[in-house]
């Protein structure tokens, strides 16, 4: 190998390490400051309290399902209704839903049963009846595994500024049980939630389906809820609908938690692969960047520089400590999970990312709640 080639590789590796580290540290700083400032600025009481309908699609007895469903009745807001959507009348979650409803008569609540096959997305099909039955013009679609704090609606409405068409929240992993639960949190928190919040902070917010606050007219005048069948993922379709309308998607300053519980490696891999394949077809530019935004390749670039004598060996260790130390400090500053096991999970996550990325580009199918789906097919046509 000639000296010119070696010199070129040195500059390339050095530039890659510096640029990726710079983006990594800047994104962490922005998201941390944004979250810390939000803690002091979210109003305890809003000047106006529009009535809100909360739609919760439920299916089966998931981890912490009773805790998450009960949390909806602790929301501190003067006027809202809760609509539980169930696809099948023999779903084992129905008795639990009815019991929780009966124990909380202070909140207007209904349970709707039935399945409207507008797409191959089972959650979207389950939500159709709730959208049409909602009494109010402000509507939240909230997954059943989202834990709603008392200020849930206040924090979402606080992000509704002029020009907004949709407000969302990514999931924040909490209460993991075991090593694979920790890995799930490592994917969700300082990686996925961080990048989504950073993208929103620089003016490029995009929808995340865990919690979505709609103004009914923003969707109804563009085809109503059936318009979300245009993509396999309803959040990707939501982003496109809102952007075509000339409006913006905003994310809450601090995400809402999702209890993770016990996970198997297969479950973590399958879920992350499903999301990666969906991102590949819905937001391809962002998906391409996912290959290099983890810590593995920047650290390998530093290892290469140390191996040929361009940098001292201790700088590799310092680089790795700074990389993951920044994530840990962000988690501490925002009250997210941190500690020895969560830190080790960050490293395992980054080792998995390249394999996950290549698996995402090598196929298009995945299974979701027993439904076979394919990201290459139009969801509405596949349902017919």
TrEMBL record:
Its main location: membrane. It is found in: Membrane. GO terms for biological process: glucosylceramide biosynthetic process. Pathway: Sphingolipid metabolism; Lipid metabolism; sphingolipid metabolism. The keyword Transmembrane applies. Gene3D superfamilies: Spore Coat Polysaccharide Biosynthesis Protein SpsA, Chain A (3.90.550.10). Signal peptide: none annotated. Keywords: Glycosyltransferase, Membrane, Transferase, Transmembrane, Transmembrane helix. It comes from the Bacteria. One of its GO terms (cellular component) is membrane. GO terms for molecular function: ceramide glucosyltransferase activity. The chain crosses the membrane at residues 6-31, 281-308, 314-334. It is a multi-pass membrane protein. This is Ceramide glucosyltransferase. It comes from Kaistia soli DSM 19436.
